[in-house]
Design a protein that fits this description.
By secondary structure, the protein is of the alpha+beta class. Helices cover 32% and strands 21% of the residues. The chain has 2 domains: 5-90; 104-168, no CATH class.
Length: 169
């Protein structure tokens, strides 16, 4: 059953899916229109899941489920990834948007969302594009409350901190 994201409790389980490119406003509208019916019928072992989704900064799809209502199963989680794979194939004029991008996303100097492929992070630290104070998106958050408190953080307070010690130290 689909509900408003704001109606989910803070302990709702959450998954963040990062697009490999910026999403247009038309893409965002398509995602929202596609996810609402998909999540309305989302179930685990025949039991309906109470869930919601939102698109954040035209780059991330956040899906959350109230585990106090019913617990998602491995198969239902797989179904949610299938939703996003299908939606990704429908976006950007027939091109595929990959929602399983694992690059590091951060806010650039002009306020835009930029990404760094994992092999390029060390070089970005060395050339000053990524600093301990750079605001990054913490895609490892796993509850709605964690999302609210820890979604954007200085790079030094995330898993990226290890790069500063190696490069600067």
């Amino acid at each position: 059953m689909y509900i408003s994201f704001s109606q989910l409790p803070d302990d709702a389980r959450l998954w963040v899916y990062q697009a490999n490119c910026p999403l247009t406003d038309a893409d965002v509208a398509h995602i929202e229109l596609s996810l609402q019916p998909a999540l309305s019928g989302w179930a685990a072992h025949g039991q309906p899941l109470l869930a919601s989704a939102q698109v954040v900064t035209n780059r991330f799809v956040v899906i959350a489920v109230d585990e106090g209502h019913n617990l998602p199963s491995g198969c239902s989680i797989d179904a949610s990834t299938h939703f996003l794979k299908t939606i990704g194939q429908q976006l950007s004029g027939g091109g595929t948007v990959d929602f399983f991008d694992r690059s590091a996303a951060y806010i650039g100097p002009n306020g835009e969302v930029l990404t760094l492929a994992l092999p390029t992070i060390k070089h970005a630290v060395m050339d000053g594009r990524l600093t301990p104070d750079t605001t990054v998106f913490n895609t490892l958050v796993n509850t709605k409350g964690d999302f609210a408190a820890n979604w954007m953080k200085p790079a030094s307070q995330t898993w990226l901190n290890r790069y500063f010690a190696r490069v600067i130290g």
